[in-house]
Amino acid sequence: MFGPNWNEGQNLSEDMPKPVELGDDDFGAMHTVCYVIHHRNDLLTQTLDPADVLGVAIVVDKYDLSVAMKFALAPWLKLRDDMNMIQLGYMMAATHRLRDEERFVETTLALILRCDASYWCLSEHEMISEVLCAKTSGKVAYLLEERRNHMRASILSILGSRGPDCSCGWGNEHAQGQLCDPWPSRISARHRFGSWGLYAEQRALEAISMQCHCWSTH
Which domain of life is it from (predicted)? Predict the structure, then answer.
C-alpha cells in the first residue's frame, strides 16, 4: 500500500505521517491482524467467534498476509464440537477465502455429518454469501445437500443389510430409525472428520460400522 505505485506511498516523511482510510475493512478484524503482525500476542485470544474468523480471513486475503498470519490462524481455524450450522458456515467461508483446501474439506464434512437443517440458510448470511459469491453459495448448498443425502443412503444400506444380524442391539436400534442423528456422539472426531477428500466419506461409513460390537469383530 505504501509502495511507490500507490497514492498512499507518495511524499512520505516521518514528520508528516499520512493517514490512510480503511473504511471497507472490518475494524475488529484489522485490529486482530495488526496485533499479530506487530507481535502483540498478549492482546490476542486463543479462540475467535467463527464470524470474526471469517472477518480476519477476508483481511488476510485482501492484504496478502497469509504467510505472516499462518501460525496465528491455525488455532482459530480448529473446529469445535459445539459449533452449529451457521458457525460452521462461517468457518467454511473462511477456509475458502484462505484457499486452505485441507481445512475446507474438514469443515464441509462437518457440515454434512453434524447438521440436519437445509443448507440454503447459509446464503442468507451476508458475509458467507459475499465470500462464496451469490451463484457459488447456491451451488455449495446444493452440493452439500447432495453429498449428505448420498451418505445417508449409504448408511441406511449398511444398517438395512446388516442390522437384523446384529446381536448386540446397536444395529437394530439404528436400523429402525430411533435416532434422528445417524452419527452418535461416541464417534470420535478422528473418524468424524478428515482431510482425505473422497476418502473421507468411506472413513465415516467405516466409523459407523465400528460402533456395533458385532460388526467390528468381523
Answer: Eukaryota
Residue 23: its pLDDT value, please? 78
**3-class DSSP string for the chain:** CCCCCCHHHCCCCCCCCCCCCCCCCCHHHHHHHHHHHCCCHHHCCCCCCHHHHHHHHHHHHHCCCCCCCHHHHHHHCCCCCCCCHHHHHHHHHHHHHCCCHHHHHHHHHHHHHHCCCCHHHHHHCHHHHHHHCHHHHHHHHHHHHHHHHHHHHHHHHHHHHHHHHCCCCHHHHHHCCCCCCCCCCCCCHHHHCCCCCCHHHHHHHHHHHHCCHHHHCC
- Residues 32 and 14: their CA atoms lie apart, in Å, by 25
Least confident of 15-29, 78-92, 124-138, 163-177: 163-177
pTM above 0.85, yes or no: no
User: Residues 6 or more apart from 63 whose CB is under 8 A from it?
Assistant: 1, 33
| CB-CB contact of 20 with 1 (8 Å) | yes
- ∠ CA 4-5-8, nearest 5°, is 70
pLDDT attached to residue 111: 92
